[in-house]
Amino acid sequence: MKIITILLFTIFTVFIVANDFMQPSQIAIDDQHNVINAGLRNGHREQDPPPEHSFILNGNGDPTTFLNFSYQDYMPFSYNGHNVRLQPEISMPNGYDAGGIYITYMCSETPNVGIDRRAYFSYINSDGTLGESNFINPYVNREGFTSCAVDPYTGDPFVVWHAFTEPDGSYDSHLSYYLYHATGGPNWREPFIVIDNPEISESFTGHNDDEFIWPQIHIGPSPILDRRRVHVYANNYSSNSAGRGNYNSLYLYADFSADSLLSGTDLDWTIKSFPYFDNLHYNDIARINKDMIVSEVDGKVVFFGNVADSLFALYSDDYGETFTKHTQQLLQELPNLIYPPTGLPIFGDEVWFALPSNDLTHYNGIFTDNNSKVQWMSGVNYNSQDNINNGLHYSYFIYPKIFTFDANIGEFNFYDLDIQDTDPGDDHLAVSYDLNDDGIFDDVEYIPASCPSWFYNSEGGWATAYYSESNCKMTSNENWAVCVWHDGAKLQNAHFEEPGYEGWVEQPEICIVISDDNGETWSDIRYINANSNDAIIDTTYHYDGNFTPEFEGMLPVNVTLGDKLEILSNEPGNYHAKLHFIFMDDGDYGSAALTPFGGGEFTNSALHYAAIDLEFQEEWIDPVSIHEETIPQVDVQLSNYPNPFNPETTISFNLSEVEKVKLEIFNIKGQKVKTLFNEQLSIGEHNVGWNGKDANNKQVSSGIYFYKLKSGEYQQIKKMMLLK
Fold first, then answer.
1. Is 317 exposed, middle or buried (0-12, 13-18, 19+ CB in 10 A)?
2. Distance from first CA to last CA of the chain, Å, rounded?
């Protein structure tokens, strides 16, 4: 009897836990392929060319495999946020060499992914080779959907995930951190519950049955001296009274120091809910699609995304302590043009709109333009008014866009990635059947529109899998930015046996676009794929020659990016950055773990790290050069240590002759903070300390600062970071 009870409990548990993936908010209609040819595009406008790229590989000449096996073949990384974080070069305060890359993911060593899934991490050395891969927690608790952050001062990684650990059978969100700064090696703190479900919810949301899971984590500066602030949010897994999940959130933050981590504390958390989100969820108004971003230097915290037909941002410039809500409707009526083959309006007597998509929602965000703007990639869906009213949509008609929230003016805009009309950056969404904006249905040969998902299967719940397997990620460094997503247009046409696509069955592509002007404009798309039959495609429209030998024999999917571009060179005609990324080589097309919609078989799926050298067209603008009129630059040797620092740093320089020397500190806006000295000095080495105080002896806030040394006719500026 006991054995039968355990078996029944196991079956019941697998049934209950098999679906901790996010669900679509609308029902996708299995409409006719290419209905009314609304997916037409007539090539691309003249713009920046696709980015040139080359792989940066380890000593074996291949991507680095950091996990050889996993039966968890659905979203091994998180829906949003980051799973790849770069360490600082030096771990402080003990000075251990760091400079590696942390990766977190979920893995199941058996096909029993309903039970055996675990939170894993890998460490990639600075040369791209594998340092270590292992589980974070020695116990198997149905752990999943990890996200990570790295403290830029200590180099310590923080990881969050959700799991079963308590008798009440609910998911809780867990956290652990790794004391790299103390040991220079692996030493994970015992995981603790950071969001205790359902007990935590009632005092914040008024409901006692919530489960806040899929946690995301970021680390930024703190308003408290000698601290950094860790930020966590999680989405509500539970359905409302109408039986739908609209994903309201809990948000938490805590301040910490290197010493507080050594003490093994669970940290002192401040917890918030958002009435705006709660109203949308509990009153069943609309699905909330979102992520959060935290600035590394100036205390900005922003939630961003879309709700129904509107974009939104919850904006904080005080380290997450208060937020201001901004919303803006994005609803464009589509022109009901005459379709030449029939002589009738393409939509008949219906009204159709372009509006934010509820399908393309697995994204993260970036700061651009001196942290004044937040950008993310999502999608726009074409849909009829009747469908909108009835919670239906056409998954075929989704097009990728870059959305921007400008905090300076509290407004939103967008950029058309694919498809594009005469001006992809104007305030008019591209209309796929009138790309020349002349009000007449384009007279062009049919070619496939964008299909921003790597998975396509028209049988057996394909629409849900289409939604679940969409994935679009971004990363940046100052004015250089990169956006990456999957496209399945060719495999979709292969599925429907369109002529010329025979070689594209189960062959998605990876799309890459870059910007060198803070996301104001974007390059054409660089497609890369694992299909060695790429040459069979008509080169007029289909970007021949994008087979990538490094993917030979693979099915590369679920790409996610490092949290920052690494600058390789910034000389005229030689602008290059390293894009760090990870991906899954799916052992069988589709996901067996995404039951019952995924369509794949349970096979081992390996996880890989790689890096691409991307060429940019314009120079990378270091924060110093933004203010070059205020802070001119010339070539004089200068350095400071430690950097980042707290609370003091030492600025060092050498003089080859007796000179009058001026040493000044400026903030990121180019405003002078303090003159450290202005006097004549002797030949030789000099060291000057700065305690982080301004000319009025007041402690300055965390952030980026510049120190300028002027000696005779020479001067030089360097950057340093104060972290508290």
1. middle
2. 59
SS3 state of residue 91: strand
Q: Measuring CA to CA, which residue among 34, 41, 2, 3 is closest to residue 420?
A: 41
Burial class for 167, CB neighbours closer than 10 Å (0-12, 13-18, 19+): exposed
The pLDDT tens digits of the residues spanning 228-255 come to 999 999 999 999 999 999 999 999 999 9
346, 336 contact by CB (below 8 A): yes
pLDDT at 621 over 80: yes
Contact call for residues 172 and 234 (beta carbons, < 8 A): no
DSSP assignment string, 449-498:
-----S---SSSSHHHHHHHT--EEEEEETTEEEEEEEE-HHHHHHHTT-
Measured distance CA(142)–CA(171) in Å, rounded = 9
| CA 289-291-293 angle, 5° bins | 155
Amino acid identity for residue 395 in this structure: S
Question: For the whole model, what pTM was predicted?
Answer: 0.85
Q: How far apart are CA 313 and CA 326, in angstroms?
A: 5
Residue with tokens 């709700």: 307
Sign of the Cα pseudo-torsion (385, 391, 394, 398, in order) = positive
Q: Determine the number of helices (DSSP H) and then strands (DSSP E) in the chain.
A: 9, 45
Q: What is the DSSP letter of 591?
A: -
Residue 691 near residue 676, CB atoms below 8 Å: no
Residue type, 38: A
Residue with more model confidence, 42 or 678: 678
Amino acid at position 74, single letter: Y
pLDDT, residue 669, reads: 58
pLDDT at 226 over 50: yes
Residue 1 DSSP symbol: -
Find the mean pLDDT for residues 471-492: 93
Pairing label, strands 392-393, 27-28: parallel
Burial classification of residue 267, based on how many CB atoms lie within 10 Å of its CB (0-12 exposed, 13-18 middle, 19 or more buried): middle
DSSP 646-667: SS-EEEEEEESS-EEEEEEEEE
Amino acid 26: pLDDT: 66
Note whether 195 and 215 are within 8 A (CB): yes
* Alpha carbons within 13 A on the beta-carbon side of 279: 4
Q: CB burial class (10 A; 0-12, 13-18, 19+) of residue 328? A: middle
Structure tokens at 425: 């950056």
- What average pLDDT score do residues 315-321 get? 97
E-strand ranges in 323-446 read: 324-329, 332-333, 338-339, 344-345, 352-356, 365-368, 373-384, 392-393, 398-406, 411-416
Type of residue at 599: G
Q: Looking at residue 543, what DSSP letter applies?
A: -
CB-count burial class (<10 Å; 0-12, 13-18, 19+) for 692: buried
The answer to which of 101-110, 150-159, 259-268 has the lowest mean pLDDT is 259-268
